[in-house]
Each structure stands twice: as C-alpha cells, then as structure tokens.
Amino acid sequence: MEEGIFVSADRAIPLGLALTELVTNAVKYAFPSPRSGTIRAQVRRPQPGRIELLIQDNGVGMAGVREGSLGYGLVRSLVQQIEGDIDIRNDAGVTVTISFPALPPREAAS
Q1: pTM confidence score
Q2: pLDDT tens-digit profile of 91-103?
Q3: CA proximity to 53, closest of 101, 108, 90
C-alpha cells in the first residue's frame, strides 16, 4: 500500500460503501464451503491525479456480471458519485478496479 494517498470525505464515504459491498460479495460467493482463499484490497496511484482501489479474490470467479443485481447497481451508483470508472475481471478469481480522480472537481479547480 502506498503512503500519502488521501481522499476527501465526499469520496471516502461512497468509496467505503463500495468497498464494503465488494468485500461482502467476495466473502459470500468466492469461497463456497469448504474452500478458503484470500481477499485483497489495495489503494494505489497509477498516475498523477488518479487513484485506484483494487479488490481482488482468488475464489471460484463468477459466470458474468449480473447487470440487474442490487449489489452491482449499488456499486455502480457509488462509483458514479465519485466520478470514477469500474473494471471487473474474472481471471483466477475476481478483480474489481475502481479508478477515480484524486481530487473532487471543486477542489481540483482551486
């Protein structure tokens, strides 16, 4: 984890809710009994002005994104609130990457 990555409360709250939803989904679905595994959450700065939150598990994966599901809709809505993008990959588990601007627009303009 990189040090010195800070986000405003306007971004931290929806980001925390999205993180909670994604980790909860991984706990519920990635490791059917008796399987166990690892869930990783990482924050990084891939380039100046951008922050990424990565949530990754090494579970069973998923057949596909369920566009109409409540959880997916919630996460998409939260990512939109922070003016971010979401990328979901299903390869040796599930990897969700949420990318968003480092500063909210009103702070970036100052």
Answers
A1: 0.85
A2: 889 999 999 998 7
A3: 101
Task: Show Cβ contacts of residue 52 under 8 Å, excluding neighbours closer than 6 positions.
Answer: 43, 44, 45, 46, 97, 98, 99, 100
State the Cα–Cα distance between residues 60 and 73, nearest whole angstrom.
Answer: 22
Query: What does the buried/exposed string (b/e) look like for 4-40 if buried means 16 or more CB atoms within 10 Å of the residue's CB?
Result: eeebeeebeebbeebbebbbebbeeebbeeeeeeebe
CATH, domain 9-108, list 3.40.50.970, 3.40.50.2000, 3.30.565.10, 3.30.360.10:
3.30.565.10
